[in-house]
Amino acid sequence: MPYLVRQKILVFALVTAIITDVGLLVVLWPGGFGADFIVYWRAAHSVAPYAPSPMPFANPPTALLWLQILRPMSATLSYAIVGLGGLAAYLWCGEKLYGRSAAFLALLSPAVLLAAIPGQLAIIEGALIFLAFASPPIACGILLAIAGSVKPQMVLLAPVTLYAVHGLKGVAAFAIAGLLLMAAATIAFGPEVWSAWFAGMSSLVQVATERHALLLAVSPLSFTGSLNWIVLVLAFAIAAIAAVLLYKSRNLPAGDQAALLVACSLFASPYALSYDMAALAPLAAAVLLRDRSWRSAGAALTFTGAFGPLSLIGGFLATRRTGLTTSPP
Predict the structure, then answer these.
(1) Model pTM?
(2) DSSP assigned state of 157
(3) How far apart are CA 329 and CA 312, in angstroms?
């Protein structure tokens, strides 16, 4: 790609991201700060976390296990600790796969800002995913299971990637860790918590539709505003196609594998919003900074996060043989 074209793509990505960031700050100030985190905090203190609410909680019961650490703290203190700690972990783990400059540049991505200010757990989820792909096979499987226990839509296809990259050893670690977490949640909150969770997810989709939050959707099926059986069948079909793409891309470097897993999982998910793309921002930043091919155009779509499902497709294009490694310069 000509040097001037590369520079124009980088400028486009940065200008679009900064303009979007400013718009988000205007919209979110001041009521949006911690608006999502307070839902997690209330769920940790509630005996019925999935009860109908104007701000429904829809993370799986396994997430409630981790949220118990919020119980001794006030909402403000826990928001600050989790937020700052999550960003620190995001930068540290992101640097392992993509390099320091890419990790810090990723903070300008609107997806990261939209996750950090309301207090979404996508930041911590991203850190777990980065660390997983910088770890040995068994640790990778366990870390992805932990990530799936918090926001499963971001690692929906983890077993496929684990099998393709690490074989049955990675899949076994993922399955055992996942089953143990599910068993712990069932013992802690009762078996009925699982049906309550599905009702909570349906409530979230309904509330998101009413509040026009689906304008931030990045998965095609999110725009249906429903979780009926037709949507679930379509999600399964898309996941099957994405699984084939993941398996065929098994020889990519670890950083690319991590981003490709997130992009394919979100695309196949029945519900995913733009803040879930926070885990794609460092890969997009790394490609924008270092790659000399047309894949930087795909990275620009992903970095800005402003083009819905096209931003996820851009992420897939950006990961194709970019040459990134787990030992960035």
Answers:
(1) 0.93
(2) T
(3) 26
